[in-house]
Write a structure and sequence with these properties.
single chain, Jelly Rolls, alpha+beta, 18% strand, 7 helices
């Protein structure tokens, strides 16, 4: 099955090992080790030290390249250009690192929220943010796509990415319903909480939960509307000491999200 078809039907696609991708990941791993121990990133050590959130923690430039490092390249990048057009200016990469013991409670996380993290992998759609004292939700950061690049060798059960296959179709339908009758210029103000919660329940009931594992030199692309999360660290799971399971993510925002965010692909 062609990668574009896989993305349309499953909501994600994995790309085999590529030398250029591996070169980028190898260089980024070195930068990642430094970022983990950088006091400037102390705020990203959460869940009692079992999760380094690492938003913008890798100092990549707008082309996704680290200083003195190789270009961001490989089959996944070629695929993104083919499907979505030129790669937009990229934000600094997220450095997502999980450690043995994940999950633990996150700060003042409620018992209900922690239970959701534990039992449902903290499943979410990227860009749907909480606002207000009542913790309602609206779409604040619409993304074009999500690219994952593993930076070190870990076992498949070391807190892998979790995706509910086909969930992007259900979430797309839900957001279309949420925005119905609202001018596109006002979509960012729409409270999607109830429709979003109902759609998640439908996803849990009807879509297969799968885990995605890859090694350095491989890559995966996930549809921006997929419901996804991170699995608990399994007993006996392995990753390099002091590094944990380390993955870099790029998720650029769309320029005109009202025209592009709810497309089929």
């Amino acid at each position: 099955m062609q990668p574009e078809t896989l993305l349309q039907t499953r909501g994600w696609v994995r790309f085999d090992h590529d030398a250029a991708t591996h070169a980028w990941a190898d260089h980024a791993r070195c930068a990642g080790r430094l970022a983990l121990n950088d006091p400037a990133h102390a705020e990203w050590h959460q869940c009692e030290g079992t999760w380094f959130v690492g938003v913008d923690a890798l100092a990549t430039n707008a082309a996704g390249q680290l200083s003195d490092g190789p270009a961001l390249a490989g089959p996944a990048i070629d695929f993104l250009r083919q499907v979505y057009g030129p790669i937009p200016p990229l934000h600094p990469a997220q450095l997502s690192v999980m450690f043995p013991g994940y999950p633990r409670p996150k700060g003042d996380e409620s018992d209900v929220a922690f239970g959701y993290r534990l039992r449902r992998d903290a499943a979410h759609v990227d860009g749907v943010k909480m606002f207000g004292e009542n913790r309602r939700r609206r779409v604040e950061e619409p993304h074009a796509w999500v690219l994952g690049l593993p930076l070190n060798v870990s076992s498949p059960d070391a807190s892998p990415l979790v995706i509910w296959e086909g969930s992007h179709k259900i979430m797309r339908r839900a957001f279309l319903d949420a925005f119905k009758g609202t001018a596109q210029a006002q979509w960012h103000k729409v409270d999607v909480t109830d429709i979003y919660s109902a759609a998640r329940r439908e996803v849990f009931e009807t879509c297969p939960r799968i885990t995605v594992h890859a090694q350095p030199g491989e890559a995966y692309v996930m549809h921006r509307l997929c419901l996804h999360g991170v699995a608990p660290w399994a007993e006996g799971a392995t990753a390099p000491d002091g590094e944990g399971r380390m993955i870099a993510y790029f998720r650029p925002e769309v320029a005109d999200w009202t025209q592009n965010w709810l497309r089929d692909i």
